[in-house]
């Protein structure tokens, strides 16, 4: 639950969002429960809406809303975000392998879409917010599809026949009838939706990725400025000489862009540097003077290598924590000693140190997880609290140099790097090996369908 002081701070938001002139508002100071008299959409008489601010692990504060009408017995409930729209959107992907995965909590905002990836991708489009679990969303999709099958059979028989195997597969999932595994994903441009993680998740079972919203998505959320005004202001910024095709090492270039946080014009600074014994990399830094948004990213160039690269580093002292490390956006980072697994795309591209990358992992998780652990969030099991506390304790020891551990960078594009302190001699603490990419990695990277030869003939055939 949320502290009473938190409820006091958000009382104005409650009133501005729900209270209208003449509404009857009651509040329980002990629980923070608020009751608002509001109009029933069914019988158009007054009913009661109950509002409760809660804190859900790993995500922002939320408002639970429950409506009931004593006149017609109509009832409804939903969940609304009590926080602001995040600076970046988020997408969660989960491989459902057992009944425990079906019980994972799901928070859906009004702008999120939930997709079940089975024979065909079945998407539950955005609607009112929900606090449910994976099984609950699948049940909702199943009921929505099967409820109108009789009508489709008469009016759209082809659609009816196409949906029969899909509905049957969803029914098997709900009945636990040999339906595992399958994949679900939750995409929310506001960044306020969530599928619960588990401390035992490994590999590609659970992924969380952040992305920058497009201008069209900002318009849908109502946070975009006038496109013409943004273009006019951006055109006044210095984008450099377009005829200068040679990028000079060490020189900073400034490019106009649209801020992913507030959608106003901002600057992206680009600098090319050479990492000894590795390759050239491009460092991108975004700064918005309007909302203060800051972000950085690292991109590497060159051809696609034939094999991926796996780099293993034994960290024994504080000296090893200061080693430079380049983690590309396609690289996974793992450590068995720290019980740490960071999947590709989670942190994006980073050029920092070993200590820096661990600190970024801690900062990203700590704001969501530890606040809930310390405040005793109702929806977090006690076993999970103990596991998270142990995880952060070991992470703190590693950052301070009090714990020896092994860290592994696995990059299918071979674009990651760890500083060698013994060059040109062999560093005994670093092991580098090439490995063959899996078919799934090839597909995720878009290499399966990539064609670099003979595409001119294909284009000519399309034009005929």
TrEMBL record:
Residues 450-464 have a biased composition (Basic and acidic residues). It is found in: Nucleus. It holds the Pfam family jr-ZPR1. The keyword Nuclease does not apply. Gene3D superfamilies: ZPR1, A/B domain, ZPR1, zinc finger domain. Its main location: nucleus. Residues 436-464 are annotated as: Disordered. GO terms for cellular component: nucleus. Keywords: Metal-binding, Nucleus, Repeat, Zinc, Zinc-finger. Acts as a protein folding chaperone for elongation factor 1-alpha. This is Zinc finger ZPR1-type domain-containing protein. It comes from Penicillium arizonense.
């Amino acid at each position: 639950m949320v502290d009473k002081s938190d409820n006091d701070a958000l009382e104005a938001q409650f009133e501005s969002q729900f209270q209208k002139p003449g509404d009857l508002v009651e509040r329980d100071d002990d629980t923070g429960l608020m009751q608002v008299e509001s109009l029933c959409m069914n019988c158009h008489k007054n009913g009661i809406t109950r509002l409760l601010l809660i804190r859900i692990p790993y995500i922002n504060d939320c408002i639970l809303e429950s409506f009931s009408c004593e006149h017609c017995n109509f009832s409804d409930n939903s969940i609304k975000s009590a926080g602001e729209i995040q600076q970046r959107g988020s997408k969660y992907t989960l491989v459902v392998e057992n009944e425990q995965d079906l019980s994972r909590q799901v928070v859906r905002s009004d702008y999120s879409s939930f997709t079940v990836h089975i024979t065909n991708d079945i998407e539950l489009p955005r609607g009112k917010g929900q606090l449910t679990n994976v099984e609950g969303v699948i049940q909702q999709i199943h009921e929505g599809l099967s409820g109108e099958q009789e009508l489709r059979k008469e009016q759209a028989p082809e659609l009816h026949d196409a949906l029969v195997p899909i509905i049957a597969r969803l029914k098997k999932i709900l009945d636990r009838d040999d339906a595992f595994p399958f994949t679900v994903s939750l995409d929310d441009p506001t960044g306020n939706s969530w599928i619960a993680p588990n401390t035992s998740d490994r590999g590609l079972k659970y992924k969380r990725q952040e992305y920058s919203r497009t201008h069209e998505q900002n318009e849908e959320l109502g946070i975009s400025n006038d496109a013409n005004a943004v273009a006019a202001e951006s055109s006044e910024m210095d984008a450099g000489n377009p005829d200068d095709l040679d990028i000079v090492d060490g020189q900073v270039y400034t490019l106009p862009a649209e801020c992913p946080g507030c959608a106003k014009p901002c600057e992206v600074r680009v600098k090319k540097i050479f990492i000894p014994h590795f390759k050239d990399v491009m460092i991108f830094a975004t700064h918005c003077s309007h909302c203060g948004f800051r972000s950085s990213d690292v991109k590497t160039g060159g051809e696609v290598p034939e094999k991926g690269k796996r780099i293993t580093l034994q960290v024994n002292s504080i000296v090893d924590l200061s080693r430079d490390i380049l983690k590309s956006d396609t690289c996974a980072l793992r450590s068995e000693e720290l019980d740490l697994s960071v999947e590709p795309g989670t942190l994006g591209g980073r050029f920092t140190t070993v200590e820096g990358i661990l600190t970024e992992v801690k900062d990203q998780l700590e704001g969501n997880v530890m606040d809930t652990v310390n405040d005793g969030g109702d929806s977090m099991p006690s076993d999970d609290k103990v596991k998270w506390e142990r995880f952060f304790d070991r992470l703190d020891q590693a950052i301070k140099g009090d714990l020896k551990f092994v860290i592994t960078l696995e990059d299918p594009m071979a674009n990651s790097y760890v500083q060698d302190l013994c060059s040109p001699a062999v560093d005994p603490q670093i092991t580098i090996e090439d490995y063959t990419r899996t078919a799934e990695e090839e597909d995720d990277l878009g290499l399966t369908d990539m064609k670099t030869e003979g595409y001119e003939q294909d284009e000519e055939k399309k034009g005929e």
